[in-house]
Amino acid sequence: MKTALISDIHGNLEALTAALESLEKRQPDKIICLGDIVGYGANPGECLDLVRSQASAILLGNHDAAAVGKENLAYFNEFARAAVIWTKSVLTPEQKDFIAALPLVVKQDGLHLVHAAPKNPQVWDYIFSYYDAGDQFDAVDGRICFVGHSHVPGDYREVRRRDSLAVHSADPAPPRRIVNIGSVGQPRDRNPRLCYVIYDTESDEVQFIREEYDVETASAKILRAGLPVFLAERLFWGY
Ligand code: ZN
Question: How far is the CA of 171 from the centre of ligand 1 (A)?
Answer without folding.
Answer: 36
